[in-house]
Amino acid sequence: MVEYKTIKVQEREDGISIITFNRPNRLNAINFQFVEDLQDYLNTLENNLGIRVVILTGEGRAFCSGLDLKDGQVIFKKNVPEGLQKFEYLQNKDKIKRAVIVQKLISQLMITLRRIPQPVIAAIKGAAYGGGLTFAMAADIRIAGESAKFCNAFINIGLSGADCGSSYWLPRLIGFSRAAEFMYTGRVFNAQEADKIGFVSKVVPDDKVLYEALKIAKHILTKSPMGIRFTKDALNINVDASSLESATKLENRTQVICINADDALEGVFATLEKRESKYDKW
């Protein structure tokens, strides 16, 4: 297992991977090394058959406070600090070109979280601001601690309120009007409001957030590995389905594949025999 500088990864024997954002002194803010580390690990998951569920969480008192503005300002400086010279895109003399690459690299993390086949659970304590909010939105399931607070913070620092997929996910998760309010105003909403508007699945005490995420992850592990992967595929594709008919055509094809796999036989016999299913890892 690679030792990363800004994230901690625990790949458990049961098939759950816990990714912990590990810059607690900066409230787990996103810097260049963070982007490289997280993308590198996520890339390993796309064809990893042993890892079946992923949990995202943050070390310390925050989930992720968004872009590290201290490091981010390097994009607009002529001279790159020595510790950052290994990032070749920062060497470009044109600040616009540097910004384009950085923007693409950060937003690609959100796309990759949706592309990996494992369901992603966000276990959130403290601030989930800016990019931290979009990490939460990129997850399939969100569990909030009582201290959790959310902010579409991009609009508060002179940028567009639409960033890293926020204009795509937020209206789909909470409706257009509420999404527009948060994106235009940058207003902070707490865990209780997030629960009320359906942004999170549940709110629990902070010390129970990871426990609750693991509880859900273990429940998912009791299901067919193939069935779970095809379910995420269907959710990703059919959230933008042009019609009910096109959505059901995709579902029909995946069900025919699943029906003819050994998992379906095991699931049926386990139900008839009133026992727990015993699926192969893949």
Protein architecture, described:
By secondary structure, this protein is α/β, with parallel strands linked by helices. It has two domains: 215 residues, 2-enoyl-CoA Hydratase, Chain A, domain 1 (Alpha-Beta Complex), CATH 3.90.226.10; 48 residues. The chain is 45% helix and 13% strand. The protein contains eleven helices and nine strands. Strands 1-2-3-4-6-9 form a six-stranded mixed beta sheet, with helices on both faces. A three-stranded mixed beta sheet has the order 5-7-8. Strand 2, helix 1 and strand 3 form a beta-alpha-beta unit. Helix 1 packs parallel to helix 3, helix 4 crosses helix 5 and helix 9 runs antiparallel to helix 10. It is globular, with a radius of gyration of 20 Å. The model has no long low-confidence stretch (mean pLDDT 95).
Q: For the report, how would you describe the main beta sheet? A: 6 strands, mixed
Choose one word for the global shape: globular
User: Termini separation (Å)?
Assistant: 21 Å
| Structural class label | alpha/beta
Percent range of helical residues? 40-55%
Short description:
The protein is α/β, with parallel strands linked by helices. The chain is built from 11 helices and 9 strands.
Strand and helix layout:
Elements: E1 7-11, E2 16-21, H1 32-45, E3 53-58, H2 69-72, H3 95-115, E4 120-124, E5 127-129, H4 131-138, E6 141-145, E7 149-151, H5 166-174, H6 176-185, E8 189-190, H7 191-196, E9 202-204, H8 209-221, H9 225-238, H10 244-259, H11 262-272
Parallel strand pairs: 2-3, 3-4, 4-6, 5-7, 6-9
Antiparallel strand pairs: 1-2, 7-8
